[in-house]
Amino acid sequence: MAVTLTENAARHVAKYLQKRGKGIGLRLGVRTSGCSGVAYKLEFADEASPDDLEFESYGVKVLVDAKSLPYLDGTELDYTREGLNEGFKFDNPNVKDACGCGESFSV
Question: Which residues pair with 81 in a beta bridge?
Fold first, then answer.
């Protein structure tokens, strides 16, 4: 079981953690939302919780709570820039269906 960052995503997260001046990594999870069931939840982590599982990619920690891991196992998180748009892109092999607006997905 693993959740990984691409090198580009790890560089982006490390840069922002340095700018913030605090934090141990990135917290990735899911929450109930939208028309397809669940949506990604992404935030900087200042400390680990007891139920967090830790993964590391390119020196950056990714924390995932145990309840979210079945939805996220095998996910690779990339950071892309396309024209004026930039942001994180999720490559999640568990997604069976996604809503049209792209906010939520189901497994």
Answer: 86
Residue 100 carries which side chain, given as an amino acid letter?
Answer: G
Bridge partners of residue 106, in order along the sequence:
97
- Cβ proximity of 40 and 90 under 8 Å: yes
Per-residue pLDDT of the chain (107 residues; tens, 9 = 90+): 799 999 999 999 999 999 999 999 999 998 887 665 788 899 999 999 999 999 999 999 999 999 999 989 999 999 998 888 899 988 988 786 665 555 555 66
CA 46 to chain centroid: 15
Exposed (0-12), middle (13-18) or buried (19+): which is 40, by Cβ within 10 Å? buried
- Mapped onto helix, strand or coil, the DSSP state of residue 41 is strand
Q: Provide the β-strand partners of residue 31.
A: 39
